[in-house]
Amino acid sequence: MVAKLSAVALLAASISAVSAQTYRRLGTCPTLGCILPPDQADFLPGQLFDLRIEVHAPVNGSEAAHDGVPDEAFTVTIAKDGEEAQDFATAFGIDEPEVETWDFSWYEDLFAEDKDEASLVNVASKAYRKLALYEPGTYTVTLSYYDGEETTAEWTVRPIANERKAKNVIFFIGDGMTTNMVCALFEGVVYEISLLTSIASQITAARLLGHASINGKYQSLLKMDDFPVIGHQMTHSIDTYITDSANSASALYTGHKSTVNAMGVYADSSEDPFDDPKVETIVEIFKRLTGGAWGAVSTAYIADATPIALSGHTRLRSQYAALVDQALNGVANWTQHGGPDVFFGGGAEQFIPGSGSYEGRNIYDEFAEAGYSVSWNKTALEAASNEDKALGIFCVSNLPVWLDRNVFTENLESQANDPSGNGNAALDLPGLKEMTLKAIDVLSTRGGDNGFFLMSEAASVDKQMHAMDYDRALGDLLELDDTIRATIDKLGELGILDETLVVVSADHGHGFDVWGSADTEYLAAQDDDRAKRRAVGTYEKSGQSQYTSAGNLNYGTGHSFPANWEPRYAIAGGLGATPDHRENYKVHRSPRSPTTRLNGEYYANPSDAPDGFLVNGTLPTDEAVGVHSLTDVPVYAWGPCQETFSGTYSNIDVFYKIANCLGLAREEGDSGCAPTKH
Which first-to-last residue range defines the signal peptide (predicted)? Predict the structure, then answer.
């Protein structure tokens, strides 16, 4: 954001810019005048959005100015490509909104927090709702306040792209997936030989592991490596370079960056987490313009960030119940997306009437009353009609991971996670593949000539990486690849492969890598930690994979998964950012719990990997699990427009590439509704 400030305000802003790294008064607002969407925002032609203006008057702290009284007489103008500026409300043909006022507090840095010295800020604000810009080009929004101070934001409306090249889109998200994780999977996989081995050369860690290979040459690849195009996207959020799943998913779905925990909005400073300025999502635009079908599939609870951000608008991702209501009923005075045609995952606690559901209501009944079939298990899912909208909620919380559903199945029996809320264990569970293939059946039927958009998420790649339960994370990533393989086959059987764009990516990554092998028997036999570390073999001592040597084992899980999850020589790998924990590199027969809490801090759990060695953490002591990393994440593409996904680009560009392929960048008058326009 570019600003013209008085000397006093400029000094305050410069101090804030230096000191406010851990905390920010408002991340997109380094000056006392805030424009949301901020400087550098991009828009799809015709995409709906709100504008929020805030003028701040800090009462105390290093930025204290204007006696703590915000200027309520501020003005806002907009100008296109150097043309004469117009009053903002006049340009959009709307009434000038009323001024709102509030205050908020924040800590300028850790020293201020330690002393409990919060800075108070008084705010004057206006919100301009449901706007759209149709003409491509550059627009300058100018906020004038405090008798001569200005803040400007430059917006870019992307080019028109109204030729539809793909009828359907399937967007696979391996939550937290990185190239290094994909490479680690080669160790346990025997597939049909891929003709596109050149893609493997772009996955550098694949060369290091040498598993399922003969004399260093792979005999097979993942289905992802069969995709003809690979690119990489940068995952930064709008005001931090480490992101979370909410705003990173939102960037993929809207073409607008946001703040950690926010989705479908630019985060403002008001108390209400639902009044922040909204931006229209890919499925809202797709439904409004084409009338096609859309759906979400996830192995997480369905109100989790990645699936719910398709329709969610809030700066607080933890508003689970309200976000499920938004998914079904939409948002007032906004695009009515009609509800998902497919909604499959976990998270029964948001549907069972009670403290976890919206206003305590029975959300299962509300979906049923809206015409949805309701499935609570795999058997019911398979029997559900493809003609009707389909809700499938298969357990409380997240679905059990692939490794527990298929190998260590005894872990399922102790859970009280039946989606009815009866306290029993959910045992008849679909996996990502079963949910995705059923979703394609429903969406292709209901979408018809209008097409469909499906997001399918392997959520526990991320969740198990956080827990440092690497085998469970990699098992779910293998399940994702198996699902992709089955999906490509399914699309071919339906005769729609050539008209469907399939994209595989992640919302963010983890700092995971593999550096060798570990002799787990030798490690367990040693008496002290330093001796145990001698069991790790690097370089020439890393050897070959034993994950494909089954012996007498037979899990019955097919060729897409390791034949032996408990080899003597396991991969030695992990995260770069962790709490204190113990490590023995063995698969954990039950879900891992790496830390224990004592006096508000986390320490290595002595019951976890007791025959392993202590690994000192690199994170603050109030962090119980691993965290996300800065790494770029891969983007694989197959189908119409696949060539546009090569290279390295921002996460928001994934949205524009998909939207352009669907022909959603429309000219004025070709909108399917009548939003306010400029």
Answer: 1-20
